[in-house]
Write a structure and sequence with these properties.
This protein is an alpha+beta fold. It contains five helices and ten strands. The longest helix has 23 residues. The protein starts with a helix and ends with a helix.
Amino acid sequence: MSGIKLSLLLGLQLLGIIFSHGQDNDGFILVKKDGTTAIYERWITFPNSDPPIEAREVKGEFYFYNTMFAGLNLIQDQSKIQLWQKHVSEFKVYPQSDTMTWLEYSYHDIPWPVSDQDHLLKYTIVEVIPGKSVFLAFESRENKTLAPVRKGVTRMELSGSWKWEQISPGKTKATYRILSKPIGIPKWLTDPIIRSNIMTTIEEYVSLLQPEASAK
């Protein structure tokens, strides 16, 4: 094999290693990591978009020292939401007759140049395997009574999930995924904001679930 061909082959192999590093089986690419907390992203077609729109899906994987039900309860706790979601100025949970579902409204104060945003989500507990895991899905809903459209506020279209897995009696692995429809802001501008915000949010969420915090 000639030197040129060999160099080209080695270059392509190296390039493949670089692009595959940090990529999982679902096509997510590792974009940020701090200790045992990892943030991944992938770009997929937003469901039912016509014409098709490429949308960012973010996945966070992390651990905390508490039960999986403590993790579930915290995302429903109106009194603590602003302790781990600093940008949320309004938050309301609407229980439903089916205790496996609820609605949630959030208003987000977003720094310039992005406008403030809000959303109404329906949460559904899809699966509970006692002692092993809880899987929760969420998606955007419309309700003019609970969440009327506000002037100058961008209504987010979202879907995603939470999964809590009980690794041991005192340790849980959490996987959070969220897919958001683009709102026309350039990717280079939103990338650092999104990645920094989700990492900070996870850190604050975990801190509230530590045994010493839960005892307060």
